[in-house]
Design a protein that fits this description.
The structure is a homodimer of 161-residue chains. With 161 residues, the first copy, chain A, is of the alpha+beta class. The first copy, chain A, is built from seven helices and five strands. Chain A has helices spanning 7-26, 50-53, 60-72, 90-98, 110-115, 120-127, 147-153, and strands spanning 33-37, 43-47, 81-86, 103-108, 137-139. The first copy, chain A, has a four-stranded mixed β-sheet. In chain A, strand 1 (33-37) and strand 2 (43-47) form a beta hairpin. In chain A, helix 3 (60-72) runs parallel beside helix 4. The mean pLDDT of chain A is 95.
Chain lengths: 161, 161
């Protein structure tokens, strides 16, 4: 259950995410900032660290989600809201889904990101099926494929998520 | 440019990823393992650490990509191949796209993951547009939206990716 933020909250948090993004550029990073606001009202920040950390997954939203989860000592951020200076790419949307983020608000869109030289719009085309050539993905049948799931099923102490 | 691995290489690396996945279950983790093989022939491992680390993004493939990028001191893994014990979910595919992974091979599929209780198949439906209700995503026009991209454009020292 997510309590809908007010319009003024949305504007305020988006401005804060934009401020993080602009400051990150000045610090040598990418032009992206994000916040995760958890149901307890705490604000968890993230900025893009891809080039600084040599981490292709260190998008602002992913960093904010990882920070919020670690600070909350849980992998389940149900009821949290994600604010991003720019429309989250598929990586960030999928991270938000797995984190059980309740809703997402953003300011600039994927075309603005593309205009700045980023591949968000292109990767959306991968996921809508129009650019499968970007990365071939193939299944190979191997006899042991089900062994990990069987071990998981047989483990009474498994932590499900 | 990715040199296509041989069928025996694919089988061997998938078996190795499956072995990591099964060992991770025994260690209390999720039933997923992955390898990134970089063009220099080095093998970078990853297993699922979501529950152990309270990190909803710590999927085996993401961990392997982050490990490979850090070990290679680059955010660009062009020419690398990703092997996964199970079909990568949208988070992992997007991470691979951003990392410029050349090709992906997997053993078990998303239905096997669903059968084990994981939401991979459900999140694929989010990306094919049939389940937008899973997470509302909304744009709000704020006056400062373009400020970070303008700062990026004006920064002659920006590191593009």
């Amino acid at each position: 259950m997510v309590t809908a933020p007010s319009a003024s909250d949305i504007n305020r948090f988006l401005d804060q995410a934009i401020g993080l993004a602009a400051a990150n550029v000045a610090a040598g990073g990418g032009p992206f900032g994000a916040l995760v606001v958890t149901p307890d009202g705490r604000i968890h920040e993230g900025v893009n660290h891809v080039t600084r950390d040599n981490d292709p997954t260190a998008h602002a939203e992913v960093v904010a989600i990882r920070t919020a989860a670690a600070a909350s000592a849980t992998f389940d951020l149900s009821g949290a809201v994600l604010y991003a200076s720019c429309e989250p790419c598929p990586l960030c949307l999928a991270a938000a889904l797995w984190a059980r983020i309740g809703q997402v608000h953003f300011a600039a869109d994927r075309q603005a990101a593309a205009g700045a030289g980023f591949d968000d719009a292109l990767f959306y085309e991968y996921f809508d099926g129009s650019r499968p050539d970007l990365m071939p993905v193939r299944q190979t049948a191997v006899p042991a494929a089900d062994v990990p799931f069987q071990a998981w099923h047989d483990n009474p102490d498994r932590v499900e998520y």
